[in-house]
Each structure stands twice: as C-alpha cells, then as structure tokens.
Predict the structure of Odorant receptor.
Amino acid sequence: AAALRDSSASALVKNLLVVLVWLVISGINGSLVATFFRHQELYEDPRYILFIHMVVNDAVQLSTTTALFVLSYTLYRIQVSVCCVFILLAVFTTRNTPLNLAAMALECYVAVCRPLRHAQICTARRTLLLIALIWLLCVTPDVTDLFFTLATEPLSFFHQSVFCLRSNIFKGPVLARKRTAFDVLYFCCVFLTLLFTYLKVLFAARALSTQRTSAQKARKTILLHGAQLFMCLLSYVSPSAEVLLQLIFPGQILEIRFANFLIVYVLPRCLSPIIYGFRDRKFRKHLKMSLQLLRCRVQGPKEAP
C-alpha cells in the first residue's frame, strides 16, 4: 500500500494545497504569538499563557506533519534516525493538545466557580509549571518507545531509509498495545475533566445571577474544547476508518489518505485561533491594535513626502 504513488499533476496540486494552508495558518498563528508577547496584560494572564502554548504546539505539530507530507512525495524514503525525530515531535505535540485542553477547562472552572481565589490559584508561575508537567506526561510514554527500539534494533537499522511511518520505526505488538493503553487513559481523563468542569460551570450559571454571563461564555468555551477533543480523537480512530473507506472505495486510496490528512491533522489546528484569537474580546482587541500598528508601519513610508 505504501508503494502507491500519485501522478505528477496530482502530487503537485496536493502539495501546493497543503503548503498554502500551512502558510495561511502559520501567518495567523504568528500574528497571535506576536500580539501575546507585545502586551503584558496577556502574557501575565494564565488563560492566555495556556492559549498561546496551544497555538505554538499546534504550529509545531502542523509544521512537522506538513514537512513529512512533502518529504513523502519528494524523497519518499528518509533515514530512520531523521524519521525518528519527525515522528516523536509529531507524537509529542499531538498528545499535548488534549492535556492542554483539560488545563484550559480547569482554568475556566476556577474563574467562574472560584472567582475570589482565581488570582491565588491561577498564577503565571503555576501555569508554567503546569505546562512543564503536561510536556513530561506527553514525552514519557513515547520516549520509552525510542529506548525499546534502541535496545532491540541493531545500529545499522537507524542508517536505513524507510517510508516515514510510526509503524515502520517503532515496531512490535507490545509497543502498539502500550500506545493504545496510554491513549485511552489520557483521553478518558481529559473527557472526564471537560465533563466535570462543564457541569460545574452549568450549575454556577444557574445559582449565581451575577456570574451568569461569564458562566455562559465559559460553558461555550468548554464545549468548543470538547469539539477540539473529538477532533483530536480522530487521529486515533482514523487508521481504522481509513481501512474501512478503502474497502468501500478501493480505487480511491490516495484520495482517502489525503482527505484524512486534511481533516485529522490540518483542520483541528484551525480551531485554536478561532476560540481565543478571534472569539475572546480582550485578545481580539489587542490583535486589532497589533494589526493596525503593522498597517501603519507598512503604509508609513508610502505616505511620506
């Protein structure tokens, strides 16, 4: 199946589309990151620290998967050691997203249900420590895959050239079962966290009339986090769905894989800017200011006598 190749025209169109989408999303993410670091009000707020962490994480994930997509057409096979770097980076950032969603949902819960203690509980320092913990939880399970492969494969294996897939690098049923167990554990924990925070915020909206508006906004945010979690889940069920679709449409394997790449790996990366970058009033205000400042800098030399 991995030997199937697109025609030159089809490969060119697909790669141009993927790179164009990457450029657009990267431009949006870059403007969000620049806005964040320009305003002290944002980079000292735990909510926006978690948000910008997700934006950077998604940018790295999208850049890695896009690079792998293009390399699969240009080089087709790459050295195992190089493939390991790409695969681990993609896996770390993919696993990072649901845990970051859980942290953001907990921050919403504290802001609505514990407003008087929010400033004490949610500090910038604690948020950075939480991000470090998230990365530790993301990295640990998959680093063991690398150690297992180093221990069981000869050194010559890492100098071979392969089609860069996770299953071609970290082989063995034991590793597959371990990955599945960790994926199920992480997603169950995140789902229960989102459900808990949503219900708590829902009850708070009914009980506290003064907090009703902020609680309703927090509920909508948590629901959007739930939508993001569902889209993250697609990356784990997509291999089975891909096999099923190939049975239904046996002549469209390459198109199915391309659609799967766009829906599972590209589309979810568009949600983070929408949830906070454009939907959040405070961030939107600072983003408009940054864009206006940039426009003035660009137009300034043209208007000068």
About this structure: Strands lie at 78-79, 161-162. The mean pLDDT is 83.
